[in-house]
Amino acid sequence: MKPETKVTTLGRDPEANFGVVNPPVYHASTILFPTLDAIEAATKTKYKNQMRYGRYGTPTTFALQDAIAELEGGYATFAVGSGAAAIVATLMAYTKSGDHVLCADTVYAPTRRYLDVVLKRYGVETTYFDPMIGAGISALIRPNTTLCMMEAPGSLTFEMMDVPAVVAACKAKGVATALDNTWGTPIYFRPLDLGVDVSVMAGTKYVGGHSDIMMGLITVRDETVYKTMRASVDELGACTGPDDQYLALRGLRTLAVRMPRHYETGLVLAKWLKEQPEVSSVLHPALPDFPGHALWKRDFKGASGLFSFVLKPVPRAALAAMVDDLELYGMGFSWGGFESLMVPSDVRSLRTAKPWTDPGQLMRVHAGLEAPDDLIADLEKGFQRLRKVAREKA
């Protein structure tokens, strides 16, 4: 089936639920067992979709997890409390004191913080690499390297990675691979198809789609990876609540409809921004002149609504004049909902392998579901305010 069909049908079982279309919400901590044999069997054996204790899942959990696993082309999915929790569970699953991790220089900031603060404290060393390194990553692999953490495209600056080349180099030396797939979602990118072991998503973003849940989703490629991740998730207690699971399933039903709109609107905005004299660059993998565009075109079926642009240096007052009175763009640190967002970002402290030296202001944009013409009109007024104040301050 096509993804458009899968998102409307997966994780549903009306016959098992009195004909109810959507899986009901199961609130549960305690699960009762009818016999001694039954409770002993449940504690001795761990398998997918096992009713054992609320933290390990209920039918609501299993409906969501099974749907995501099918979309990602994986063996199984774990739903946890946030995207950050999904990343932590993945990093913990593959590291112990004395291990070495390879990590793309452009990963999500909390991923970097966990590596630099928590895992470093426990004796895990991290080497950050240029996301454009490709097969050259082989030279960075050490005997104690256990995991390569990737993100495609990179956070904030959207560098693309040659994922198959990196995966091949890691597999040749027995290194596990994980990739943050929040930007593309399985609608536009399936990293497990390219050999990645673990695909991580913040369900908070596009899966939920309405800026009202917190969730992380971890999808594994096979049973061996499942056992490794199962232990990590269980030990961290990183579960999510049934109400958010229900809302994630509801959001999933429209994911294949929403993603093309985000994609199309984001590209319209990116092209318009490229024409503005105050903009020095637009960072969007779907633009033909963007470095890494060929990799995006080869591996992805589309793009999300998230991208960035860089303003030429302007006084802070001019920037404030631009963003403070925007009507349709909110300033906030998430994305993937129905609403458009714009937030200034500073990546200089988040880059070590490939320093960010552009003197202009980086602006991250999320293109929501509003009419593109209205979003452009709002931006145009913002740039007019920026120009006016910039002239006054000159």
Q: In words, what does this structure look like?
A:
This protein folds into two domains: 3-252, Type I PLP-dependent aspartate aminotransferase-like (Major domain) (Aspartate Aminotransferase, domain 2), CATH 3.40.640.10; 255-393, Aspartate Aminotransferase, domain 1. It has helices spanning 3-9, 36-44, 59-72, 83-93, 109-121, 163-172, 185-188, 223-236, 242-252, 255-274, 293-299, 316-324, 372-393; strands at 76-80, 100-104, 125-129, 145-151, 176-180, 198-202, 216-220, 279-283, 306-311, 329-330, 340-345, 361-366. The model has no long low-confidence stretch (mean pLDDT 96). A seven-stranded mixed beta sheet has the order 1-7-6-5-4-2-3, with helices on both faces. The chain is built from 13 helices and twelve strands. The protein is an alpha/beta fold and 394 residues long. The longest helix has 22 residues, at 372-393.
Summarize this structure briefly:
The chain is of the alpha/beta class and 394 residues long. The chain folds into two domains: 3-252, Type I PLP-dependent aspartate aminotransferase-like (Major domain) (Aspartate Aminotransferase, domain 2, 3-Layer(aba) Sandwich); 255-393, Aspartate Aminotransferase, domain 1 (Alpha-Beta Complex). It has 13 helices and twelve strands.
